[in-house]
Amino acid sequence: MASARSALRIVLAIASGLGVLSVLHEFGVKYAEQKGWYDNLPSRVEAAMTWLASLTEPLWFKFLVTSVTGLAVGVWIDVMLRRRERDQSPPPSETQAHPLQGGREAMLKLAMRGLQNPQELFRTNVFRWFVQKTYGQSPNGDPIFQGQVFVVVFDKPFVPLYGTVECSKPGVHFEQFELSERMAMIGVADELDGQTVEIRFGATRDADDGKPLFTYELRRDGDVWHLVIANEGADATFAADLDLTDLPHGWQPRPAGTVSATWGANNEARPQETIRNGARKSLPVCLIEGHGGQFTTFLWYFDQGRFQLTGSPPWRAAPGGAMSGAPKLHFPLLIRSSAEPGRSYRMVLECDGFDLRVIASEVPLRRSLLGTGAGIQP
Is 65 helix (H, G, I), strand (E, B) or coil? Predict the structure, then answer.
């Protein structure tokens, strides 16, 4: 009976609404005829459109529309993320120290394409992203690029310790506008057309004081990739192991499984390094060497009491960026510190052509937002 009464109530409401609308419609038509609103209707419409178009000409109106659009997008992202977290998050627990800590790292790599949207090359723990560009207007009416903002929304929220940006264009400075558990905003004044931008964020380990004992940076110096360790704690001796068990076929000479990483090269090579508090030391990992479009990738390590390296089969790269036979492999790296005996921190490195990146890490990345430069180019 209740459902029948509800259906009847809906039918009566619809009928009443239609009756009221018909009366209002007739009243509106008669009123418009008496006022002469229908006389010379095309000219009236044209005048109204001209007035509306004049409102969009001032520069303040364009800035206002851009700001309102950005605010609306931000509100939409916030509401969407709250709904997503509410649907996916487990029930709260009294022993849960960080309820938002669902991830440890996030990474986004983009190829910038001028007026087109950037092309996504790779992403990890990124739910949504967009790039908002701002243009002004010159005295003769031409658009002038003023800057752009990268907005990255994390798929699994976490408490980020660091944010880094690597750009294929040298000398580019990025400014961090916001870095929170859910999203990050990074601005840059350069246009970056045809460049590659790689953005990374990560969380600290769960230490008693909330601070890491050491952090890392991945840097490229000429043809050599370095893993730079920064000691944030007391003076300590560091060592690292490379697991090359899954090295692809064709690498020569082939090391036997796990070997020590090398601090320094050639006669200065050593299997461990003492790093004082606040100091940084470089751990060379990878060398990419070649000429005439033909290259070889070398991994450096320390074994049998001396510096050694293993090389990939030769591969080719054209000036336009096309590569043939370039190695792509993952290999774990375990870092140990005398400050924490018996514990090691695992990282996974990915070698892909001219690039070397960290795709997983228990070590937080050193907080920095400076572009690293162009580096190696074919």
Answer: helix
Question: What are 375's two structure tokens?
Answer: 């580096």
Q: Would you call 55 helix, strand, or coil by DSSP? A: helix
Note the residue count of the chain: 378
pLDDT of residue 324 exceeding 80, the answer is: yes
DSSP count for the chain of H helices, then E strands: 3, 21
Residue 292 has pLDDT above 70, yes or no: yes
Could you give the C-alpha distances from 270 to 64, 224, 277, 335, in angstroms and in order?
A: 60, 18, 20, 15
How many C-alpha atoms does 105 have within 13 Å on its Cβ side? 19
Radius of gyration of the chain (CA): 30
Which element (helix H / strand E) includes 367? none
Residue type for 123, please?
Answer: R
Confidence (pTM): 0.47
Nearest to 288 by CA among 375, 197, 358: 375
Q: What is the residue extent of each domain of the chain?
A: 58-86+98-209+365-378, 213-362
